[in-house]
UniProtKB/TrEMBL annotation:
<feature type="domain" description="PPM-type phosphatase">
    <location>
        <begin position="1"/>
        <end position="203"/>
    </location>
</feature>
<protein>
    <submittedName>
        <fullName>Serine/threonine-protein phosphatase</fullName>
    </submittedName>
</protein>
<dbReference type="InterPro" id="IPR036457">
    <property type="entry name" value="PPM-type-like_dom_sf"/>
</dbReference>
<dbReference type="InterPro" id="IPR001932">
    <property type="entry name" value="PPM-type_phosphatase-like_dom"/>
</dbReference>
Length: 235
């Protein structure tokens, strides 16, 4: 999941371009270094857009997502303040740390965690993807257990809905699509002033469908509806 960074130009293009390139390239990921390289490649696409159109200088996006590695296991990539949560055995834990000014203030004991959501500078990120070779992208390995549920959300949810409400909703016995819809509805009811994106998926045993095609939503669907040129790698 990618969320265009506000305050700069073309956040929708940045998020869509990054996801499109990543979807075309991440099919067979071996390990953390491999995923990191592919994330870097997708990030370079943003720079290519700016080179073609200098008015896009400064566009940026967050990214949080998982990839199933060759041989099993999950790799988690993260940059920015979009979040990942995991539900396992009835317990929900956050799997990412916000790259944000407010998180740094909390970490240094300057503000209390409960004050972060209402801080006037909560939207300032300290890491994002801009196409620059020095952009910071974290990659970590996580074990894959059948029955786990993962949820990814933009700050349109996490900045306006208390984390305990998010956790309680994610822990309910809902199907993935329904859980995502419920979280979006809660954010809208909380009068969020940002776009809200929620992705929910479950870990299951078995082999993936080799013929399944990537599906894009939001800006990625609107801006890059054409077929991926190297989609044949999925066959």
């Amino acid at each position: 999941m990618a969320d265009g960074v506000g305050g700069g130009p073309a956040g929708d293009l940045a998020s869509a371009a990054f996801l499109r390139r990543l979807a075309a390239a991440h099919v067979d990921v071996r390990d953390e270094d491999d995923l990191h390289e592919r994330l870097r490649g997708a990030n370079w696409d943003l720079r290519a857009h700016v080179v073609r159109d200098p008015s896009l200088e400064g566009m940026a996006t967050t990214f949080t997502g998982i990839v199933v590695a060759r041989g099993g296991g999950i790799l988690l990539g993260h940059s920015g303040d979009s979040r990942a949560y995991r539900l396992r055995g009835g317990t929900v834990t956050r799997q990412t740390r916000d790259d944000s000014l407010v998180q740094a203030l909390v970490d240094n004991g300057i503000i209390a965690p409960e004050d972060a959501a209402s801080h006037p500078r909560r939207n300032i990120v300290t890491a994002s993807l801009t196409g620059d070779e020095n952009d910071r992208i974290g990659v970590a390995r996580a074990d894959a257990v059948a029955g786990d549920r993962w949820m990814f959300c933009s700050d349109g949810l996490s900045d306006y809905v208390a984390e305990d409400r998010i956790v309680a909703t994610l822990a309910r016995p809902l199907k993935p699509r329904r859980a995502a819809q419920e979280l979006v509805s809660i954010a809208l009811a909380a009068r969020t002033h940002d776009n809200v994106t929620v992705v929910v998926c479950d870990v299951a045993d078995g082999e993936p469908d080799a013929g399944e095609r990537p599906q894009f939503y939001g800006a990625a669907a609107g801006l890059f509806a054409e077929e991926l040129e190297d989609l044949g790698e999925l066959d």
